[in-house]
Amino acid sequence: MNPSMEPQAFGAGRAGSTFDPIEFIKRPQVILRIVSWVFAIIVFACIAQEGYMTGECRYNGSGACGYGIAIGIIAFLFAMLFMGLDIFFPNISNITQRKIIVLTELVVSGILTFLWFVGFCYMADQWRQEPKKDTPGWNGRNNVQAAIAFAFFSIFSWGGLIFFTFRRYRAGVSNLFSSSYEDHSAGTGQTYGGYPPAGGTGSFSQPPFTATQQAQSNYQPPAY
């Protein structure tokens, strides 16, 4: 079955569905997650490499260097975590667990979007106040400015993840009220067919205890 035609629950088909790496890579949220992961690496690398000179942060000697490095590491780890969960997601049969994972991603994406916004404003303002931008012998100006730029880009990449995750959550909640998806996490009990309609010739399954009741109704007490 085409994955796009398969019944969905929070962005994935039934548990045990075939994993298609090509379709997986084409998903907008996966692309944005990879982009966010790359941006986090760039911010971290630029600050770690050229953000300090003689032990002093080039953002006006403030804590902006530490903030940029910290948010870069955090964003990198969460991007990797949610990427792994996306790969494992189709193997989760419990609808409640799927819902919790999507809600967690939605909240984390919102927090990281806010933190990137704060980081961008913080680094840009401290760089504006930096009195030693053109210190002789220091060639890290471009890297410091690149960290600010990619912190700005990260606001939009994580903001995009909020949009797609929320759409995934809304679609998942809507599908819970439809019969197109069946949760296979619970066991299946034995069912019995109903009686055929009046005048019909179809077969039916005999409900339990019918044979016993019929035997009792045919019982004749002995005559004395």
Task: Summarize this entry quickly.
It is a multi-pass membrane protein. This protein is mostly helical. It has 6 helices and 2 strands, in the order H-H-E-E-H-H-H-H.
Structure description:
With 224 residues, the chain is mainly α. It has a domain of 131 residues. 59% of the residues lie in helices and 2% in strands. It is built from 6 helices and 2 strands, in the order H-H-E-E-H-H-H-H. The protein has a two-stranded antiparallel ribbon. Strand 1 and strand 2 form a beta hairpin. Helix 3 packs antiparallel against helix 4 and helix 4 packs antiparallel against helix 5. It is elongated. The termini are far apart. The N terminus is likely disordered.
Counted beta strands:
2
Round the mean pLDDT to the nearest integer and report it: 78
- Could you say which overall geometry the principal axes of the C-alpha atoms support? elongated
Q: How much of the residues is beta strand, in percent?
A: under 5%
Features:
224 residues, single chain, 6 helices, mainly alpha, 59% helix
How is the secondary structure organized here?
Elements lengths: L20 H6 L1 H23 L1 E2 L2 E2 L6 H25 L6 H35 L11 H35 L34 H8 L7
Antiparallel strand pairs: 1-2
Helix pairs in contact: 2-3, 2-5, 3-4, 4-5
